[in-house]
Amino acid sequence: MSQSYPIWNDVTACIYKSNKSYGVRQEGAVDVKIGTSGSNSFHFVSHKVTHRKNEDGTRTYRFYVDGKIIKTATLNTNNEILITEADNE
Predict the structure, then answer these.
(1) Do the Cβ atoms of 24 and 15 come closer than 8 Å?
(2) Rg (alpha carbons) of the chain, rounded to whole number
(3) pLDDT at 88
């Protein structure tokens, strides 16, 4: 028997084949649907987080909402400093 929820998340990630709670290596995407159940729901918003390891050893993370970059962070793994910035495009 399935349950009804007002918010339904279909989660897709590069390292998993099915929906679940997970850690992500490069990219994770969530398609958020709203309605009365998984079968009676409508697309509301999509968000995605990406990770890239740069040649200089830093790591760059980007957060997207509906395909638009909302926030970027760069992690320097040598001194463990995280620099974040909101993108205003």
Answers:
(1) yes
(2) 16
(3) 46
The verdict on pTM exceeding 0.85 is no
Q: Tell me: the pLDDT tens digits for 40-87?
A: 889 999 999 999 999 999 999 999 999 999 999 999 988 888 889 865
Helix (H) or strand (E) run with residue 52 in it: strand 41-53
Count the Cβ atoms, other than its own, within 10 Å of residue 75: 19
Q: Who's near 70: CB < 8 A, 6+ residues apart? A: 63, 64, 86, 87
Q: Which of 49, 19, 46 is nearest to 34 (CA)?
A: 46
Q: Which residues contact 88 (CB under 8 A, 6 or more apart)?
A: none
What is the C-alpha to C-alpha distance for residues 54 and 56, in angstroms, rounded to an integer?
A: 5
Whole-angstrom distance, CA of residue 53 vs CA of residue 74: 10
Cα gap 4→15, rounded to integer Å: 28
